[in-house]
Amino acid sequence: MFQATRRRLAIWYTAVTAILLLLFASGVYLYVRSTLIERVDDTLNHVVEIVERSLVIEPVDGDSEKVRINVEASFRDNANTVEDDHIDLEWFSPTGKLVWSTVSEPLNIPIHGNRLGETVRVIRQEIWGDGETRDAPLLLRQVTQRVEVGRQVLGYLRVSHPWFEVTKPSRQLIIDLALGTWFMVLSVAASGWFLSGKAMEPVGESYQRLKQFTADASHELRSPITLIQTNVQVALADLELADTQGTTFVNYRQQLKLVERLTQRLGKLVNDLLFLARQDSGINKDVFSSCPVDALLIEVVEEQQLLAREKNISLTLELVDPPVGESTPELLENWFTLAGNWDQLVRLFTNLISNALQYTPAEGEVYVQLARLEGSNRVSKIRYSTSVLQVKVIDTGIGIPSEALPRLFDRFYRVDPARTHKTAKTSTESSTGSGLGLAIASAIVEHHQGQLYVESNIGQGTTFTINLPITPEY
Asked: How confident is the model over 335-351, as pLDDT tens digits?
């Protein structure tokens, strides 16, 4: 499918470029040809003007009212002048009879008074190498000027120029343009194939991610649905075999509670998928409001303390105080406040802290730090010109392999392919998560125009760093 799409893209790209090149080459050819014709016509008209000025006009039999052209005196010097430029002169009487010509053979072309220039075709007899005489066409560009004094027409002057002065360079131009266009089409085809491959790379990657996402989503959805179906079938079977003591109804109640838990898990998974889909499509148009992140983190940490105590993990929160020199009351009051979505930020920090608690063994520590970083103190990777709030979630857990870090925020991705993890006690626990927690965290940070980084060492722990701008840029 991708190869076919790539071929179609390359073909369309080459076809469109070839059409544009043909249009360009045609325009260049027509422009050059018209320029050549114009130059030839200008040359012929210039010769006509020169010859007209050099004509010797004399009276007929002493009558000053009747004049004539002295042909010998008029064209004695002009013939040598125009011979070098491949220009032929013809002088016709007022009746159209040829009187004088530099052409070796009469052209037998009737007079057409056309000062703008015209192209004529002449058939001449030529002797070939075998001694036979054959007709050979000859194209000429001609300008004809009627010469008159007052109302008396003295004759017609026709100036001819070989048409090969136009056809020869035009033919060479066609060959050059054809070769150049063909070479460019081949180059465009090669580059189009290369560029279409580059263009298809992100599409292919997105398609692979979509396939993986679909497979993982199907796996995650299939498990609770299968369990729900199994427990409902068992419950219905037990209900049919109920005895008078009611013992079966106890099993029936347990099975219904299990179905309730599975449906809650299934609902949470669907909500997570819906949230990510809305984030990807840009449907979410949340209006940000003022969010005190310090109060938000205090609530989240308090909610996670129960899980921390159950696992015997120390969970602490540190709020880095403002610098001593900062004395603006309004700024101090809103030192840890930014524009954001309260519910999404709660979800972000809940996911990160609960994830840290899940992968930290007993007697371990999870440390949460909130600080405000001004522009001069921020790390170089931050691209905002305003201040940012930096939240760090540091744990002393099992760590994450370095090869897994690039894919850590992919949807449904877990470090352990078997979807399990081992704690420091080497006991293997089944992970009930969907693998969407970090993907959701990354989407929320991106929605707030922030950055999320992770650093980890096997056996030493993991550090998640979140940088959120005080005022997101849109």
From this structure: 888 888 888 899 889 98
Distances (CA, A) of 383 to 185, 370, 469: 43, 20, 10
Is residue 366 within 8 Å of residue 393, measured between CB atoms? yes
The pair of structure tokens assigned to 265 is 């898990």
What's the predicted TM-score (pTM) here?
0.48
Q: Is the separation of the CB atoms in 339 and 358 below 8 Å?
A: no
In whole angstroms, what is the distance from residue 159 CA to residue 144 CA?
6
For residues 79, 82, 83, 88, the Cα torsion angle rounded to the nearest 10 degrees is: -80
Find out whether 6 and 197 touch, Cβ atoms under 8 Å: yes
> Tens digits of per-residue pLDDT, 237-253?
666 666 544 555 666 66
Tokens of 413: 């991705």
List, in order, residues 6 or more apart from 460 with CB less than 8 Å away.
396, 399
Between residues 410 and 373, which one has the greater pLDDT?
Answer: 373
- Residue 427's alpha-carbon distances to 111, 132, 180, 399, in angstroms, are 112, 109, 72, 16
- Residues whose CB falls within 8 Å of the CB of residue 390, separated by 6 or more in sequence, listed in order: 369, 370, 371, 372, 373, 465, 466, 467, 468
Name the DSSP class of 377. Answer: G
Looking at per-residue pLDDT, the higher value among 327 and 335 belongs to 335
Tokens of 200: 């298809």
How many CB atoms within 10 Å of residue 383?
Answer: 11
Helix or strand or coil: residue 400? coil
What are 62's two structure tokens?
Answer: 């002493």
- The per-residue pLDDT for range 118-165, each reduced to its tens digit, is 888 877 666 665 666 666 677 888 888 888 887 788 888 888 888 887
Average pLDDT over residues 373-389: 60
In the 8-state DSSP scheme, what is residue 361?
Answer: -
DSSP calls for 291-326: EEHHHHHHHHHHHHHHHHHHTT-EEEEEEPPPPTT-
Question: Residue 424 half-sphere exposure, CB side, CA atoms within 13 Å?
Answer: 18
Which residue is it, tokens 């790390």? 379
Q: Model confidence over 277-322: pLDDT tens digits?
A: 666 665 566 678 888 999 999 999 998 998 899 889 999 999 888 8
**Distance between the two ends of the chain, CA-based, in angstroms?**
37
> In 3D, which of 263, 237, 239, 259 has the Cα closest to residue 250?
239
Q: How many CB atoms lie within 10 A of CB 335?
A: 21
Q: Count of alpha carbons within 13 Å of 134, Cβ hemisphere only?
A: 7
